[in-house]
């Protein structure tokens, strides 16, 4: 299990950038998708957004990325409103790997990863030496450098997901947003991708926010958790302090058995059955739980 960010001293803060929601909400028609939310993402950490289907996880990530504009409130990056900068400037600070992307058939792996360099490319999209270095470094990190000249048409699902990850890594931003990066992957590919991201964070202190469905993977590979339910943030804080049997039962509707593995610090939660929900979960603000 990876060493948590809070258990070791940071070597550098050069890549760290701040990302904040200030009373951000989203309404589509008469339906409220996200209740007014204040949230500070801890710079240099890995933060997992968790919650049941329809709780607003992907919506929150899209708001953080600027892909979706809030109905009210402000999203701030480095203390400045996200929408004040142009997209190319923002793309030098923040990268988003969406949940679903169409595979560009007929394109080589290296050419697809090169798309991540668009904020840095020169006139007419020309790539410089540093761009090629970034592409090669990203492919090496995700262990796909040997496939650089292969067409993406022939890649497996796990290989394709690593190529998408390489593309956003080549963007070389201080903030990386990942929407369900382990979806559709078998367990071996899931763990390998999680390890790659954790190692990236350990080495470069990039701020990472990802949406995950597996609670135990989130607890093992994340520093902090934002727990959502019905469009609201229920809890936010250090992963092992946020998650317990009671809150899992209330939010996810399942009973769990807490397991302490030999030689491991953190607990795992095994689902053992359905839970009768209550309706009195109190929503708390980020300031209360931070």
Outline the structure in words.
This protein is an alpha/beta fold. It folds into 2 domains: about 5-95 and about 175-250 and about 280-290, P-loop containing nucleotide triphosphate hydrolases (Rossmann fold, 3-Layer(aba) Sandwich); about 105-170, no CATH class. About 30% of the residues lie in helices and about 25% in strands. The protein has helices at about 55-65, 85-90, 110-115, 130-140, 155-170, 185-205, 215-220, 240, 245-250, 285-290, and strands at about 20-30, 30-40, 45-50, 70-75, 80, 95, 175-180, 205-210, 225-230, 230-240, 255-260, 265-275. It has a 6-stranded mixed beta sheet, with helices on both faces. A hairpin with a 2-residue loop joins strand 4 and strand 5 (about 80). Helix 4 packs antiparallel against helix 5 (about 155-170). The longest helix is centred in the C-terminal third of the chain and has 18 residues, at about 185-205. The two termini are about 25 Å apart. The model is unreliable at about 5-15 and about 285-290 (pLDDT under 50).
In brief:
This protein is α/β, with parallel strands linked by helices and 290 residues long.
- CATH topology of the largest domain, by name, is Rossmann fold
Q: Level of helix content?
A: 25-40%
Q: Biggest sheet, in brief?
A: 6 strands, mixed
Query: So how many helices?
Result: 10
User: What is the first-to-last residue Cα distance?
Assistant: 24 Å
Question: What is the mean predicted local confidence, pLDDT?
Answer: 88
CATH class of the largest domain: Alpha Beta
Determine Rg (CA atoms, Å): 19 Å
Sequence stretches where pLDDT stays below 50 over 5 or more residues: 5-14, 285-290
Structural class: alpha/beta
Percent strand equals 25-35%
Q: Please trace the helix and strand order, writing H or E for each element.
A: EEEHEEHEHHHEHEHEEHHEEH
The backbone outline, from C-alpha atoms, is globular
What would you say the CATH architecture of the largest domain is? 3-Layer(aba) Sandwich
């Amino acid at each position: 299990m990876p060493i948590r960010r809070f258990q070791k001293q940071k070597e550098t803060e050069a890549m760290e950038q701040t990302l904040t929601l200030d009373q951000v909400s989203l309404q589509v028609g008469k339906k409220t998708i996200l209740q007014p939310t204040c949230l500070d993402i801890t710079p240099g950490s890995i933060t997992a957004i968790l919650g049941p289907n329809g709780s607003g996880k992907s919506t929150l990530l899209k708001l953080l990325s600027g892909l979706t504009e809030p109905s009210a409130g402000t999203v701030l990056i480095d203390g400045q409103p996200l929408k004040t900068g142009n997209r190319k400037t923002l793309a030098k600070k923040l990268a988003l790997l969406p949940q679903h992307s169409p595979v560009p058939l007929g394109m080589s792996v290296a050419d697809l990863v090169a798309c991540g360099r668009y904020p840095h490319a020169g006139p007419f999209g020309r790539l410089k030496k540093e761009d090629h270095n970034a592409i090669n470094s990203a492919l090496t990190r995700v262990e796909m450098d040997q496939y650089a000249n292969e067409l993406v048409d022939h890649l497996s699902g796990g290989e394709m997901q690593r190529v998408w990850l390489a593309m956003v890594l080549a963007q070389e931003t201080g903030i990386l947003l990942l929407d369900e990066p382990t979806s559709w992957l078998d367990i071996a590919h899931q763990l390998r991708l999680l390890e790659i991201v954790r190692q990236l964070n350990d080495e470069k202190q990039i701020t990472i926010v990802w949406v995950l469905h597996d609670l135990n993977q989130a607890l093992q590979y994340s520093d902090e958790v934002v727990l959502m339910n019905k469009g609201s943030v229920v809890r936010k804080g250090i992963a092992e302090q946020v998650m317990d049997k009671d809150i899992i039962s209330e939010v996810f509707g399942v009973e769990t058995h807490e397991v302490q593995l030999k030689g491991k610090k953190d607990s795992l939660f095994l689902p053992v059955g359905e839970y009768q929900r209550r309706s009195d979960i109190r929503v708390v603000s980020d300031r209360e739980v931070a």
